[in-house]
Amino acid sequence: MYQTLRTLLSNARCWDTDSERSYQDLFERLDTNKDGKVDVAELREGLKAMGIFRQGAAQKIVSSGDQNKDGCLDFNEFTKYLKEHEKKLWLTFKSLDKNDDGRIDSSEIQQSLAELGIGVSGEDALKILQSMDIDGTMMVDWNEWREHFLLCPAHNLEEIIRYWKHSSVLDIGDSLAIPDEFTEEEKSTGGWWKQLVAGAVAGAVSRTGTAPLDRVKVFMQVHSSKANRISLLGGFKQMIAEGGVTSLWRGNGINVLKIAPETAIKFMAYEQYKRLLSSEGAKIETHQRFLAGSLAGATAQTTIYPMEVLKTRLTLRKTGQYAGMFDCAKKILRKEGVKAFYKGYVPNSLGILPYAGIDLAVYETLKNTWLAHYATESANPGVLVLLGCGTISSTCGQLASYPLALVRTRMQAQASLEPSNQPSMSSLMKKIVAKDGVFGLYRGILPNFMKVIPAVSISYTHILCNVKTTDLSV
C-alpha cells in the first residue's frame, strides 16, 4: 500500500484537481469496510500497511479532522484535513528551502536543525536526507517531502523534532533540571498546563514512593562520618527503632506540597527569561536555554526555599519534636529568626549550574548521537531511549552537584546551633574534606542513586500516559 500511496501522490500538486482525485483514491483504499467513513482503526491499519505507522498518529488525525465529532472522517473531512495539512507542510518546506530552488539538500537540513538548537554534522544531515529521498538525487523536492509527512500529524520541523522534548526528566526530589519546552499550539490549547499537572502528579507519586530512601539519604548526609559510619541498612534500622516504620515518610508531605508552586514559578520565569534572552521570533539557542533554565530554577528555589529548610528539619525530626509543618515553622521562627529559613541557600543556588548544565549537555549529546546513528526513518526515539537518555543525563548532573547538595543539607540541619557555631559554606566543605576526605562530600549518594530505579518506572508510566493524552487531544 506504501507503493500505492507513492503512485497516487507522485504527480499531484498542492490544492489542485489532481490532489482531489488522489485523495479520493486514497480514501477509498483506507475505507476498508466501504461505509463512506474512515475510523481510527482503519486509518491505523492503513498506516501500518504503508510502513509509516507512528504511535498515536491515527487518533490525532481523526481528532483533528473530525468536524461533526462522530469519531471518524467522511470524504469531505478527510479532504479538508489533508488540504490544511498540506498548506502547513508547504510552509515548512519553504522555510527549509533556504536558496528557494524547490529542493532541500543536506546543508539546508543541517542549518535548520542548528536553528532549533540541534547540532549535527554534514554526514549526519545526509543520513536524515536519505530517509526522505525517494529518487536517489540526494535532494528532497516538494513531492518527496509531502509523501513523507502527509499522514504524520506533525506539520513543522519543531513538532517533528519535539519527540525529543526533555519530558523524561526523573523527579527524585531535586527539581533542578531545565523546564520543558511547549509549542505555541500547546500554549493556545491549554495542553501545557495538563502536562504540568500530569508531571506534578507523577512527581508526587515518585517522591512518596522514594521517601524512605530520601530520608535515609538526608540522615546519612548529616550524621554519617568516618568516626560514625552509617550504612544504608543501619540508617533504616536506626530510624525504624526511633519512630517506627511510618517515620520513614517524615518530611514527605512538604516535599510533595512544594512541587506545585516550584513547577509553576519555574515555568513562568522560564518563559520570561527566554523572551529577555532571545530576539523576538527567533529560536532560542542551547546556551540561551541553559541560561534561562538556570535563572528560572534559581527564581523558583529562592521563592520556595523556606519549604526546603522545613523539609530537611521535618525529615530529621525525632518523635514528638514537632506537631507538624506549621508547628515546625513557628518554632524555627521564634527560636532562630527569619534567616534560618535561608540557611544553605548559597550552595543550593550554586548547585543549579552544574546540575542543569551537565544534565542538558549530556542529554543533547545523547540525543544528537541517536539522531545521527538511528534516525533513518523517524525522529521518534521511543520511550525507552528517552528514559535511558534522561536517566544518564540526570545521574551525571547529580554527581556534579551532590557535594553542594550535601553542604546545603548540613547547613539547613545545623541552623539550630548557636550563631558562632554555624560554619559558612567554604569552611564546612573544608571541614568535611579534612575529616572524611573527598568521599565525605558524597555521603548518602547510594540511596540517592537507588531512588532512580522507582523514579524510572514512574517516569515510564508518566510518558506513556502523556503520549496517550496528547494523542487524544485536538
Automatic annotation (TrEMBL):
Places the protein is found: Mitochondrion inner membrane
Keywords assigned: Antiport, Calcium, Membrane, Metal-binding, Mitochondrion, Mitochondrion inner membrane, Repeat, Transmembrane, Transmembrane helix, Transport
Pfam family, one: Mito_carr
Gene3D superfamilies: EF-hand (1.10.238.10), Mitochondrial carrier domain (1.50.40.10)
Keyword Mitochondrion among record annotations: yes
Bilayer topology: Multi-pass membrane protein
GO CC terms, sorted: mitochondrial inner membrane
Iron recorded as keyword: no
Solcar repeat placement: 190-276, 284-369, 381-469
Substrates-to-products reaction catalysed: ADP(out) + diphosphate(in) = ADP(in) + diphosphate(out); dADP(out) + phosphate(in) + H(+)(out) = dADP(in) + phosphate(out) + H(+)(in); 3'-AMP(out) + phosphate(in) = 3'-AMP(in) + phosphate(out); dAMP(in) + ADP(out) + H(+)(out) = dAMP(out) + ADP(in) + H(+)(in)
Domain EF-hand: 18-53, 84-119, 120-155
Molecular function via GO: antiporter activity; calcium ion binding
Major site of localization recorded for this protein: mitochondrion
Family: Belongs to the mitochondrial carrier (TC 2.A.29) family.
Subunit structure: Monomer.
Protein name: EF-hand domain-containing protein
Organism: Astatotilapia calliptera
Species classification: Eukaryota, Metazoa, Chordata, Craniata, Vertebrata
Underlying gene: SLC25A24
